[in-house]
Amino acid sequence: MAEKVIYAMYDDDDVLKDGAKKLVAKGVKVADVFSPFPIHGIDPIIGVKHTRLGIMAFLYGLTGTTLATLGMNYFMIHDWPMNIGGKPSMTYLDNVLAFIPITFEFTVLCAAHGMAITYLLLNKTLPGMPATNPDPRTTDDKFVMELRLSDNGQFSEGELMTMLNETGVIEIDQKDIH
Amino acid sequence: MHKEAAIREPLILGHKTYHEITEDVCKPIEDKAPRMWYILFGIALVIGLYGVGCIFYLLGTGIGVWGLNKTIGWAWDITNFVWWVGIGHAGTLISAVLLLFRQKWRMAINRSAEAMTIFAVFMAGLFPLIHMGRLWVGYWTLPLPNHFGSLWVNFNSPLLWDVFAISTYLSVSLVFWYIGLIPDFATIRDRVKKPIPKKMYSILSFGWSGRAKHWNRFELVSLVLAGVATPLVFSVHSIVSFDFATSVIPGWHTTIFPPYFVAGAVFSGFAMVQTLLLVMRKAMKLEAYIHTKHVEYMNIVIMVTGSIVGTAYITELFISWYSGVEYEAYAFFNRATGPYWWAYWAMMTCNVVSPQLMWFKKLRRSLLFTFIISIVVNIGMWFERYVIIVTSIHRDYLPSSWSMHYPSHIDLGVYIGTIGLFFVFFLLFARFFPVLALNELKTILKSSGESYKNDTAPVHPYFAKNGHGSHGHDHGPDSGTGHADPNAEGTNDINNH
Q: Which of A44, B127, B205, B415 is 20 to 30 A from A140, comparing alpha carbons?
């Protein structure tokens, strides 16, 4: 099903933010914003929820800590205890100090890579993925607001255009997306 | 998004628009490379290939080609390893620690400093690998099930901790760097016209589109990666120092090694950043973004870490006497007055005296002086590792075993070769990658750009017409329309506070 989308382009982040706020106040739903850099404060205006990736990073880190602990306990205590200079090697607790550096490194390794991979998958940004920004200038110095007609049933296309024109927009483009 | 204090020096000089930032950074990538680039690249490549040749000779013949002997079993190779790892400490420190401390000046230098870090750690990693002599069994350092009755690697050994620390540091730094690069690759992708570069940058940019939700995640990922990378930076060189500190060699087994090595690493890393950036800003015309203030900030870091290193040297000397341990005292006395006195005093001059000159404002703001000192510091830090490693073991307990270390030409070739390879990588980076973090710089333009700070930047027509403050940035909390609700804003403001 084809859907009508309006792309409103701005040349300043503060103008776009101001415009978005005015539109949202009138009950318009802004589907998305494309920008060359993070616009601080835009998320609560257009209703983008704060990401929960941080929780994921913690869980990945916890996985790393657990794996490192279990692994070293098995390798060094159970499977092949090594007698190094007569130092205690019989229980995990006897030897734990020597295991801390690797436990820490492995925690960081798992947390960082787990989160980075999740981030790329969630964004669907992977090698070879096509770019979906509506205009190539949005990665340079232009800011685009995306409005969907289906999200804004209470307004006609003309009404949306009028409202947009009051917000300092520099170009308006319409597309049918499938 | 507060307005920065007026007395802070602007971080971006002159008047720039968002588009001009893009232009300034992308131009050198899109234009033909200057002749000088080809000349430097050619020289670096020849030196690098000579090093690769030496490495092949070493692998084919065995590590007997090194200048080691029965007494001095560790010298040149480990010195270079520690030196390169140390240099590789600045990048992640700049991007991670300074991000947590909200230091905006990092944004102009973090990209190239991180690149430098990654290339330096590549070079560092090479040394333990070739030192195995049999490169193809390098995977034996990993705890893999095997046919030797399942004999595991020794998790009690600092050398194995090193394997984990260095590989974690390298891969996490690489990921941190690349995640920041993705949006900037997208900028280049959307600008270039030629089909092959377009294809290349479109693959590199992973289809980045700059959606609000993606930026929200981007900022969180940067923050969390900075959070985990910060203790990582400190742990890596602490673990490198354990290679020595957990031994029982007088001169090595000192408890102050971890902090002392970390300070030394940051010290040499920043020096290398200065060496590279002072040339790069000139060659790529980035003086508006990396200017005297940035150099001064880095010089202050060099001064502080240099003072920590100096204090550590003197503490070591004092403790060697105060401990009353004869062997310990001899090790240090011998360092300063024995056959390696020249290396010791080179280290003392370069690392203790030279950073103290940075107390003078004139000197630390002088680019030429900074450039000279940055090279002096790197020479000094190389000598530091050489002094610690070689002088501590060249006097064995039996005088009949006393010996000296003379590097062979293969030793020299491999070391010089890594410097060549490092510059090959760095020059390729400067040619094809965005050397400044475009997306981050644009976020500080309005708060730290010179023309915005002194109100000479033109007011946006939209705000001029609607009777707003100058550029939507300096109205107070009660001026109404220009701002989001301050509580909501705090939740995702990572770079700008």
A: A44
A137 and A115 housed in the same domain: no
User: Residue B422 has what pLDDT?
Assistant: 94
pLDDT at B487 over 60: no
Sketch the domain layout of chain B as residue ranges.
18-141+152-457, 458-497
| Nearest to B435, CA basis, from B17, B110, B120 | B110
Domain carrying residue A91? 53-123
Query: A139 and A95 in one domain?
Result: no
pLDDT at residue A161 is higher than 80: yes
Number of C-beta neighbours around residue B258 at 10 A: 18
Task: Note whether B164 contacts A: Cβ–Cβ < 8 A.
Answer: yes
Q: Are residues A40 and A85 in the same domain?
A: no
**Residue B79 exposure: Cα atoms within 13 Å on the Cβ side:** 27
Scanning every residue of chain B, which has its alpha carbon at the shortest distance from the alpha carbon of A139? B187
Q: Considering just the CA atoms, what is the radius of gyration of chain B in Å?
A: 25
Which chain A positions have a beta carbon within 8 Å of B493's beta carbon?
40-41
For residue A17, give the CATH number of its domain: 3.30.70
Query: How far is the alpha carbon of B102 from chain A, nearest alpha carbon, in Å?
Result: 15
Q: Between chains, do A139 and B239 touch, taking CB under 8 Å as contact? A: no
Shortest CB distance from A15 goes to which of B221, B231, B462? B462
| DSSP conformation class of B301 | H
Q: Worst-scoring range by mean pLDDT, B36-50, B331-345, B375-389, B474-488? A: B474-488
Question: Which residues from chain A sit within 8 angstroms of residue B462, using beta carbons?
Answer: 12, 15, 18, 168
**Beta strands A30-34 and A3-10: pairing type?**
unpaired
Specify whether A117 is located in the same domain as A142.
no
For an interface test with A, give the residue of B19, B208, B217, B225 to mutate (most A CBs within 10 A). B217
Model confidence, pTM? 0.88
The tokens describing B111, both together, are 């990209």
Chain B residues in contact with A105 by the CB 8 A cut-off are 161, 164-165, 168, 232, 235, 239
pLDDT in tens, A142-154: 888 888 888 877 8
B212 has a chain A CB within 8 A of its CB: yes
Tell me which residue of B300, B326, B281 sits closest to B108, measured CA to CA: B281
Top-level class of domain B18-141+152-457: mainly alpha
Q: How large is the average pLDDT for residues B213-238?
A: 90
